[in-house]
Amino acid sequence: MHRKIIFTVSCLLIISASACFAGLNYYEEKVHKFNYTVEGEIEIKPDKAVFPIILTIQGNSYADSLKNTQRITHQIISELKQLDNTVFTASPSDFFKQRDRGKTLLDVSFWRNDENKPESKLIFNIYVNFKTDHTFWQRAEFLAEAHDFIDRFIKRYKEDETVSVYPEETYYEIDRIEQYREEIIRSIYEKAKTMADIIASEEKVNLDIRQVTFGQHIVKEILNFNRASLTINADIEFAFDKTGENAN
């Protein structure tokens, strides 16, 4: 997977560091320390797109509505398999799984509608499973194909008052986020070293990185189907001595 480590040292951070040094009395104590919070960040691409579909089926009884729900679900999955089955897959949504959007989806529910007729509702997912070598345009084409597939089913049952096919908002997922922790930590060390080199050059002192305390959680931000970032915050303790030699 193509990934890019982001190295950004804010001008404001450098200015703040200089101001911090200006306010210190270098000669009051041999060793001086100061701390900064550094953000380690890498860019990756989402592994999959998720299309939640809600099927609401009316029947003469709950058993009848559920039977029709099964029939239509199997039909959708069967036709989906005619597409590239290495990319497109489907399955019922995970029972009571908490989504990133904070919305809990149930697999099947039953109730009577405004006309007092039994209905069943099934929520399932269509997945677009991206490969590591898929380009931007390949990913976009797969998404367009999934949208077209869903639109065909919506139109098929548009005139049927007993069937409702409703797509929810598409979202994207990253698999096995923990596998990236080591790479993010490496980016933090590299960023801290860059900061130390710049500050040492400006202030004419030698800096040591005394201690690094890492945050436990990896924060993800998924911008679109082709771009996402993972970050970990870390508290960096720098040290220098009044002679300009590395602090022990």
UniProtKB/TrEMBL annotation:
<keyword id="KW-0732">Signal</keyword>
<feature type="signal peptide">
    <location>
        <begin position="1"/>
        <end position="22"/>
    </location>
</feature>
<protein>
    <recommendedName>
        <fullName>SIMPL domain-containing protein</fullName>
    </recommendedName>
</protein>
